[in-house]
Design goal:
Number of domains: 2
Order of helices and strands: EEHEEEEEEEEEHEHEEEEEEEHE
Number of strands: 20
Number of helices: 4
Largest sheet: 7 strands, mixed, barrel
Amino acid sequence: MIKVLTPGFYTTIQDLGRVGFSHIGVPVSGAMDGYSAQLANQLLSNNKHDAVLEITFGNATFLFEEAQLICITGADFSPKINEERVALNVPLYVKKGAVLSFGKQHYGVRTYIAVNGGFKTEKVLRSRSYYPEITKERTLQKGMLLPVEKLHQFVGKTFSSVKINDSHFQSNKICCYQGPEYHLLSKSQRSAIQKAVFTISKDHSRMGYRLEESIENDLPSILTSAVLPGTVQLTPAGKLIVLMRDCQVTGGYPRVLQLTGAAIHILAQKTTGDSLVFSVQAL
C-alpha cells in the first residue's frame, strides 16, 4: 500500500481512459498528458493501460508502506525521497517507510507516478480513471491507501534514463486539423485563428481550456453534435474552448478545430497565462 499524506491541489488516478461509452454519456477521461503517463509505464515495463497517479501543480506527499519500484515523469516539481532529490524519467527503488514529496516547480503542470504493475484501484466501465459520479472518488484524499502489487524482486539499481524533448514543455505550437464546421468560417475568421497568439485563461480544467482572446463571430449554434477531447469550439461571444479529457460527449457550439493527440499532451502541461498558436493542417 501507498498512503496519501498530502493529496496536493488536484491528484487523481488515471489510465488511458474509458473508451467506448460515449453513447451513454460517459466521458473518456484518462491521463491529460498521455505521452508522459505512458512513458512512466514503459520505463517500468508495465502494460500501457496500467493506472498511474496524475498530480496537478505538485504539493503531494506519499508514504510507502512497502518497498516499491516507481517512475516519475511529466512536470518537474522537484521530487524527493526522504528529502533527497531524485531524477525524473528513470526507474527508482523506494524503500519501505520512505516518503516521496514534491516541491518547487521547474517546468510543466502535471506530474505522473507509475508503480510496478500499476495502481490497483477499482475499475469502473473498464477503466480506473477518476471521474465524478462514475467513480467513488473525485480526487485523492488525505489518509487514503492506494493498493499496488507487492514487489517480489528487485534486480538492483539502474542508471538508464530517457531524455525528453524540451519542446513537449516549451513549444507553444498546437497542431490541429480542420473541424467539422471549419468550412463555415469566413476567410478573415480562418486567418484570425491561424495568426493569433492565444492566451490560456484562468478558466481551465480537465474538462477544457478557455482562451482569453476573441475573434469576430456571427455563426449560429449547431444542433447538438458529438465532441471529443481536442475538439475546439467557437462560442457565440467569439471565444475558443479547447475540450480536454473530461469533456462532455456532445455540444452545440461550432467545432472549428480538432487537436492531434500529441497536441493534447502538450497543452496539458500549460496553465493560466501561457500562450499558444494553432497550426492548422488540411485534411
